[in-house]
Design goal:
The structure holds three protein chains of three kinds.
Chain A: E1 2-11, H1 17-24, H2 26-48, H3 80-116, H4 118-133, H5 136-147, H6 152-160, H7 165-178, H8 182-189, H9 194-202, H10 207-230, H11 241-250, H12 259-287
Chain B: E1 10-19, E2 29-39, E3 46-51, H1 57-64, E4 72-77, E5 80-81, H2 87-96, E6 97-100, H3 115-124, H4 131-144, H5 149-152, H6 162-175, E7 180-184, H7 192-209, E8 212-217, H8 220-226, E9 229-234, E10 237-243, H9 244-249, H10 254-262
Parallel strand pairs in B: 3-8, 3-9, 6-7, 7-8
Antiparallel strand pairs in B: 1-2, 1-4, 4-5, 9-10
Chain C: E1 3-11, E2 15-19, H1 26-33, E3 41-44, E4 48-50, E5 53-54, H2 60-66, E6 71-74, H3 88-100, H4 105-118, H5 135-147, E7 153-157, H6 165-182, E8 185-189, H7 193-199, E9 202-207, E10 210-216, H8 217-222, H9 227-234, H10 248-256, E11 265-269, E12 272-275, H11 278-282
Parallel strand pairs in C: 2-8, 2-9, 6-7, 7-8
Antiparallel strand pairs in C: 4-5, 9-10, 10-12, 11-12
The chains are: A mainly alpha, B alpha/beta, C alpha/beta.
């Protein structure tokens, strides 16, 4: 047997790979677009729509959409559009605040836990695992009703109680791996102390994971807080979207056919969750590339 | 550090390292057993620690660097036990004992440019008052390893070749003008063309700058070519040691003989003799 | 361009050593032989002839039956790609069944044990999982899988590079054994010149995607002609005597002379071919 070859192997050029890669991830693009749209709604809206509309008796009671009130009014005469516009910010704020606290706690605990290991790690890890198994919403309901969450900040803190375990676990797992890397050993040989290694060498490598965890934390927090608001346990003084819905249900808006009251906030929330969900799916893929479909 | 004239530079006395084991557990894994080694103070030498995987050579290297604590035995640098070292002495130790590792990619933090590895040293050991003053020092170190500062500084690790990265690591170790460099398989992940170059640089550092090397390797050929003294390790224990040429030309211990017989000689007229007869260990561990 | 104008042949029962540094194109070449090149690369021109079949003209179907049957591959890092959740018997069995269809259990079992015996493994290994085996044993399982269908050509890509030196010799001898039994051709890809000296009958030296020298193993080691080959041979560390390795500058000079435009080889001795061009012969910077 003889085998002979005269062969040339040529790489085909493919120039715009990276650029296309971003847009290939439709989930990320769509999710971000939705979120930006809703954010814009909440930021620009108040400049256009007057706050007057959110006060009781601003318009006729239970009026369907009209020129003056594009989304109609609720049973107390409040302009639905105005309420939505002014309610977006607090709704999102709870989420971002709770997510932010959760991430901060999660990163610090995750770093300590993964780097030092030993008894500290066992404690932190067990605490995180236990917190994960507790039915969050149930506990939140109890806490919220007990503490009378009147402000957005208070609600954020309560929700954050359940936002920290996932980030802690993710960051811990990454830290465990990174602490064994060559460059960490090198840093030690260069005389760096533990804190410097943690924050100057390990942490910068964790940024994608922190971002991903942050987005997930925020989504979860918004979900939880809206849930609480729907049950009437949210801040009452500040109008939030959940609150609008809660009143709508209380006043049997569905039965009364007042679709303009319960409809728009529902659609808004649905869009919000879809957007957050898409982003968090994309983030998961960043944090865990194996989730992607067959990569090239 | 004050020391008597006879004090060795590095001394490892009956050092053992055992992982796991302890109360309620079965006997731990012995990585290194009863390991002793002496490096003289003012006679720069290249000492090779040779063995296969699991022989304990890497463990010995990490112990010598102070990255691991021995389970028993002592490690003395200039007569001072590393276990009882003061902060000030520890800084001196760090400055005088440096390392080169095997993987030229993993040793770089990917978020930083390669300059980072030098800058950390400069600031920690106050080699220069600022970046500008540090640059000529770094350029000098790079020149010794045959690299041009303008070509490699300011780049990220992935922008450089494996050979360049490894040479930068040598330059980094050299920057502090150490007394001892522990080189853990410095050329096993480097192309053949670069191996001789990097090992020659090590030789140059020893001869021109008086730096001793602990050269960890599985490749007896390079140990033969470049080291003065050799320790052959098998499963955590030293089976033979002595002058490199003597040990390799005339191995006494059966394990050493086995190792040397297994090396493929790069001469088609000197093929392996017979077949290697070992009981095939087909029983699972 | 990854590889160009590559031309060589392998006879039955002969070992052809493909030598070169990383990025020289050796793995690309063997992938091309197996028609495994994936986009963004493609094979352009040339013929790959196995026995009497031109592989370039085969359909995907025909190629699939050819692979493993007539050519098999032990890829780089094969021992690490063994399926960790399948027993040895199932992995070897799979390779056989995929190509030969169903076989009675007893027949299959005997065949697998026979294969294990051929590579020097005891029948106990039959039921084990990969993680229960040592590196050398895993690699021998890979060899067993590669020869299960008695191929005419075996391509082994760095088959011993991750192994300790003693085990390396064991595995290398196993490979040689197996080749003799099948009278198969073996393409041994690797950068360990010592191993090549021991195993190969003929050697092809690749540099920057082209062959620079091809010839019988003794000629390459004792009488290298091309400057790159000469540099390569002179920088091999020997355990027989201490000698001076060539200076780093010599390597840089070679780097300057890039690959040639017109790949062509001259026969300087019987069966000994060298790629020559003006610039390389004179050692001037390209």
């Amino acid at each position: 047997m003889a085998s002979s070859t005269v062969v040339s192997v040529v790489p085909t050029q493919s120039v715009r790979w990276r650029f296309r890669a971003f847009f290939r991830d439709w989930k990320l693009v769509t999710g971000v677009a939705i979120l930006l749209g809703l954010l814009l709604f909440g930021l620009v809206g108040p400049l256009v729509v007057s706050e007057e509309g959110t006060r009781l008796g601003a318009g006729e009671y239970s009026a369907p959409p009209s020129a003056r009130h594009p989304l109609g009014t609720d049973s107390t005469g409040r302009d639905v559009l105005a309420m939505m516009v002014y309610g977006t910010r607090p709704t999102l704020r709870v989420g971002f605040l709770a997510g932010g606290i959760g991430i901060l706690v999660g990163v610090i605990l995750g770093l300590i836990s993964g780097y030092y290991r030993g008894p500290v790690d066992t404690i932190i890890r067990s605490a995180a695992d236990i917190t994960l198994t507790i039915p969050a919403l149930a506990v939140l309901v109890v806490l919220a009703s007990f503490l009378r969450t009147t402000t957005v900040e208070l609600m954020a803190v309560i929700v954050a109680l359940f936002a920290w375990p996932w980030p802690t676990r993710t960051i811990r797992a990454q830290t465990l791996t990174l602490r064994e890397s060559g460059f960490v050993s090198m840093s030690r040989l260069s005389g760096r102390n533990d804190l410097e290694i943690l924050f100057l060498e390990i942490l910068p490598n964790l940024l994608p994971f922190i971002m991903a965890s942050f987005v997930s934390a925020v989504s979860g927090a918004i979900l939880a807080s809206v849930g609480l608001q729907l049950l009437g346990l949210g801040p009452i003084l500040t109008p939030t979207l959940g609150l609008i819905l809660q009143y709508a249900f209380e006043y049997a808006a569905i039965v009364r056919g007042m679709w303009w009251w319960w409809g728009p906030p529902t659609v808004f929330l649905m869009l919000l969750f879809i957007g957050l969900f898409l982003i968090s799916m994309a983030m998961d893929e960043i944090a865990n590339p194996r989730l992607k479909g067959a990569a090239e | 550090m004050e020391s008597l004239p006879d004090t060795p530079l590095l001394e490892m006395r009956s050092v053992s390292k055992i992982y796991g084991g302890g109360f309620l557990q079965k006997a731990g894994k012995v990585a290194l057993k009863d390991f002793s080694l002496t490096l003289p103070m003012n006679k720069p030498r290249i000492v090779a620690l040779a063995g296969e995987s699991g022989s304990g050579k890497t463990t010995a290297a990490r112990l010598a660097l102070g990255l691991l604590e021995p389970t028993s035995g002592q490690i003395l640098y200039k007569g001072v036990d590393l276990h009882r070292i003061s902060r000030r002495e520890a800084l001196v130790f760090r400055r005088e004992v440096q390392a080169i590792f095997q993987d030229p990619y993993e040793v770089y933090n990917p978020v930083y440019k390669v300059d980072h590895v030098f800058n950390v040293l400069v600031s920690r050991f106050r080699l220069a008052p600022d970046r500008a003053a540090a640059r000529p020092l770094i350029a000098d170190a790079l020149r010794v390893v045959g690299l041009d500062a303008d070509e490699v500084l300011g780049k990220y690790p992935h922008q450089l070749s494996g050979g360049q990265r490894q040479r930068i690591m040598v330059a980094r170790a050299f920057l502090l003008k150490p007394r001892l460099i522990v080189a853990d398989e410095p050329v096993s992940m480097v192309d053949a063309s670069l191996r001789a170059a990097i090992l020659s640089i090590m030789l140059k550092l020893k001869e021109e700058f008086g730096i001793s090397f602990l050269y960890i390797t599985h490749d007896l050929s390079t140990a033969y070519q470049y080291s003065d003294e050799i320790y052959i390790l098998n499963r955590g224990e030293v089976v033979e040691s002595g002058d490199s040429q003597a040990v390799i030309d005339n191995p006494i211990h059966p394990y050493t003989q086995l190792l040397i017989r297994s090396i493929p000689i790069p001469d088609p007229d000197l093929k392996w003799e017979g077949k290697l007869e070992i009981e095939l260990e087909n029983v699972p561990e | 361009m990854a590889v160009r104008g590559v031309s060589f042949y392998v006879r039955a029962g002969e070992t052809f050593g493909l030598v070169g540094e990383s990025g020289s194109g050796k793995t690309t070449t063997d992938m091309a032989i197996l028609r495994l090149i994936r986009p963004p690369a493609r094979v352009e021109g040339g013929e790959i002839i196995l026995g009497d079949t031109d592989l370039q003209r085969c359909s995907e179907e025909e190629l699939r039956s050819l692979r493993w049957n007539r050519i098999s591959l032990i890829p780089q890092g094969a021992m690490n790609s063994l399926n960790p959740v399948m027993r040895v018997k199932d992995q070897i069995g799979d390779a056989i069944l995929t190509h030969e269809g169903r076989l009675p259990g007893k027949v299959l079992r005997e065949r697998i044990i026979d294969l294990l015996h051929t590579v020097g493994l005891s029948p106990d290994v039959y039921n084990l999982y990969p993680h229960e085996l040592s590196g050398g044993m895993k690699q021998r399982v890979c060899i067993a899988m590669a020869i299960a269908l008695r191929p005419q050509l075996i391509i082994a890509d760095e088959p011993t590079s991750a192994l300790d030196v003693v085990v390396q010799r064991l595995v290398a001898e196993t490979l040689k054994d197996v080749q003799k039994r099948l009278n198969a051709g073996l393409i041994l890809i690797g950068h360990d010149m010592g191993l090549q000296a021991q195993m190969a009958d003929r050697i092809g030296v690749m540099y920057k995607g082209q062959f620079v020298e091809v010839g019988p193993v003794r000629a390459i080691f004792k009488n290298p002609v091309h400057p790159y080959t000469r540099l390569l041979i002179s920088s091999i560390p020997s355990i027989k005597q201490k000698h001076q390795p060539p200076p780093a500058a010599a390597w840089e000079e070679i780097q300057q002379a890039g690959p040639q435009d017109e790949p062509g080889m001259q026969e300087v001795e019987p069966e000994h071919f060298v790629a020559l061009s003006e610039s390389i012969a004179l050692g001037s910077a390209g």
